[in-house]
Write a structure and sequence with these properties.
7 helices; 5-stranded mixed sheet; globular; alpha/beta
Length: 205
């Protein structure tokens, strides 16, 4: 695709400013029709925490837009990075699949010039992009994360999660992060280029 100068400027701005990306280009369907996202204060706080912190919990009221902002963050990561694996945990596999569907809808409603990473595989629980990023809906089983090079874990409506599940997920994330840092794989994009054998070694340690 040939980009105009204006499109290139928009690409760079969207890459560098997720709030602008969301407020300007993210749309999804609701009971009232197609909605253009306008981030609320809670959603902006979630984005700020995601950029500043490696692990955080963000309690919010129902209908505060938690799932929507999570979908935006995961889509933004998949579009503008490489080798990022994001996992979605929810009460049921169908709930996590619904979030995968929401992300796909947001992607489909983007203008063509923003779809710089194309979806190569799509099913009920997974989106794979041609830049080696993927988004996986895992349901509620924490063992689904073992042996995978995970960059981001999102837990939806976390009141269903018991303490052991959280411990397992956080331990997996911290082990992989620490191993990557110690072995020189940690670049601007976490886990870029980490071999799967190394991930298995880190998880089993």
């Amino acid at each position: 695709m040939n980009y105009s100068e204006e499109q290139l400027k928009e690409l760079i701005r969207c890459r560098d400013d997720i709030e602008y990306f969301a407020d300007t280009y993210i749309k999804y369907s609701s009971y009232s029709g197609i909605v253009q996202v306008k981030l609320n204060d809670f959603q902006r706080k979630v984005i700020a925490n995601f950029k500043e912190k490696r692990i955080f919990f963000e309690p919010g009221e129902r209908m505060s837009g938690k799932t929507t902002v999570a979908a935006i963050i995961l889509l933004h990561q998949a579009l503008f990075n490489e080798y990022r694996v994001s996992m979605i945990f929810a009460r049921t596999k169908s709930n996590s699949s619904l979030i995968v569907d929401l992300i796909y809808e947001m992607y489909e409603r983007l203008p063509d010039f923003l779809c710089i990473s194309k979806i190569s595989t799509r099913n009920k629980s997974k989106l794979e992009f041609d830049n080696m990023c993927s988004i996986i809906g895992a349901g509620s089983d924490p063992n689904y994360a073992r042996g995978r090079a995970i960059s981001t874990i999102y837990i939806d409506e976390s009141e269903w999660v018991d303490s052991l599940t959280i411990v397992v997920l956080v331990q997996i994330a911290i082990k992989i992060w620490a191993w990557a840092r110690e072995n020189g794989y940690l670049s601007e994009y976490p886990l870029h280029g980490v071999p799967m054998a190394a991930i298995l070694e880190a998880c089993e340690a």
